Amino acid sequence: xxxxxxxxxxxxxxxxxxxxxxxxxxxxxxxxxxxxxxxxxxxxxxxxxxxxxxxxxxxxxxxxxxxxxxxxxxxxxxxxxxxxxxxxxxxxxxxxxxxxxxxxxxxxxxxxxxxxxxxxxxxxxxxxxxxxxxxxxxxxxxxxxxxxxxxxxxxxxxxxxxxxxxxxxxxxxxxxxxxxxxxxxxxxxxxxxxxxxxxxxxxxxxxxxxxxxxxxxxxxxxxxxxxxxxxxxxxxxxxxxxxxxxxxxxxxxxxxx
Length: 257
What we know:
By secondary structure, the protein is an alpha/beta fold. The protein has a single domain (3-256), classed as Undecaprenyl pyrophosphate synthetase, CATH 3.40.1180.10. It is built from nine helices and six strands. Homodimer. GO terms for molecular function: ditrans,polycis-polyprenyl diphosphate synthase [(2E,6E)-farnesyl diphosphate specific] activity; magnesium ion binding; Z-farnesyl diphosphate synthase activity.
């Protein structure tokens, strides 16, 4: 590392401390959703392989959750694999699935976080299904941040699954279709979502410069704030995270007043 890079790093750290020092913890979002975008583009820009990019993105997760712990966030939803990702070439998809399994095992073994899967379990390979169930069981007693690992997740799929679950539930209880139609409301559908017992995201962060949700938590983000960051996910820094929290707090105060 040359002198210019060292100086730049020092200035970034000093700026991060300044932003953190002015952060009002009463205005911190309780639930943050993260669309971790840009692994492949980061890899291409750095001259490495796509698999290396996915591994670098996976390595960023624990660091990110550490920042969330420091700032009193209670729930984090990490979008690790969408339903659309299953259309990727096998030479990319198979290593990616392995990396994601490693992420789940690492989060469960850490001991600080409660792991919860959100997504269509039946779309996943049997080994990953077992890993997710083991992680949920092993961390069910932990009181720290709830970490939703969105794997095999799509917003439209979630709503379809919620409606299907609601219909089966009514059938099991012997509720007539006419009575169900009369009683359906927002709260009833919400109780059948993957995140049924959790608060909706207050803030959604998307890295890589893309400014769209791509189907992420379509139902739950109706009133969320969005923060779009130009940095690729593997290069996401604490200062970028703190800027997102600062921007959220400013919007939250303005809308609340």
